[in-house]
Amino acid sequence: MSDNRIGERLKNGLLIENPTFVMMLGMCPTLAVTTSGINGLGMGLSTTIVLTMSNLIISLLRNVIPDRVRMPAFIVVVASFVTIVQFLVQGFVPSLYAALGIYIPLIVVNCIILGRAESFASKNPIIPSTFDGIGMGLGFTCSLTVIGCVRELLGSGKIFNMVILPSDIYTPITIFVLAPGAFFVLSVLVAVMNVVRKKMDAKGKPLAAPVGCLADGCAGCSMANSCTGKLTADKKGGE
């Protein structure tokens, strides 16, 4: 796998198909655990580990797992890594484990992980699948960390428990560490992401994936032109 292709898989997860700001996936943990930057970072990294290892194993076994049981098999693989991560977090970072609570075991049914397993890892070799997991995981981690930091800063004047806005000059807006604040911050950041994407489109450097590529997991890859050409040919043929 070329360095360029690796970069494309990472860029895909961070920008083109960012799970949170573009695909709007994994909304439950995004809204529930991002009361602080450390919670968002911890949840994101936990998901990244599970996503990367699951993609690796599923890609390795893609020619062994029968089609009729592929989803149960994917869930078993994901659940195994979630259990390992849960025990590690509980043993080494008990405060983070207490803060994340039920959302760690719920990684098993996170649509980001199952979606990448079905659309990419089960159809591609090990190395691309691994870096796809890393890219999507980092995109999810960055999104949750940014949301958590914004909510923590506005809600308590801190970032990663470090005082940024002292109480003598700033009155915390506590609604931002509550549920309504999560929706508000998410909506603003999604709007900012959309503005950035439109500006990049206007400059001729689009961040959006080619039409028809998202379903096949090839957004941002070297096959983008062939996907677009195939769609155009299909459309002409249909006419």
Q: How confident is the prediction overall: mean pLDDT?
A: 84
How are the strands of the biggest sheet laid out side by side? 1-2
Biggest sheet architecture: 2 strands, antiparallel
Number of DSSP E strands: 2
> Would you tell me the structural class of the helices and strands?
mainly alpha
Proportion in helices: 55-70%
Choose one word for the global shape. Answer: globular
3D architecture notes:
This protein has nine helices and two strands, in the order H-H-H-H-H-H-H-E-E-H-H. The C terminus is likely disordered. By secondary structure, the chain is mostly helical. The two termini are 38 Å apart. A two-stranded antiparallel ribbon has the order 1-2. The longest helix has 31 residues. Helix 3 packs across helix 4. 64% of the residues lie in helices and 2% in strands. The chain has one domain. A hairpin with a 2-residue loop joins strand 1 and strand 2. It is globular.
Keywords:
239 residues; mainly alpha; 9 helices; disordered C terminus
Please outline what is shown here:
The protein is an all-alpha fold and 239 residues long. It has 9 helices and 2 strands, in the order αααααααββαα. Helix 3 crosses helix 4, helix 3 runs antiparallel to helix 7 and helix 4 crosses helix 5.
Topology of helices and strands:
Layout: H1 3-16, H2 27-32, H3 37-60, H4 70-92, H5 94-100, H6 111-119, H7 126-156, E1 158-159, E2 162-163, H8 179-202, H9 224-238
Antiparallel strand pairs: 1-2
Helix pairs in contact: 1-7, 3-4, 3-6, 3-7, 4-5, 4-6
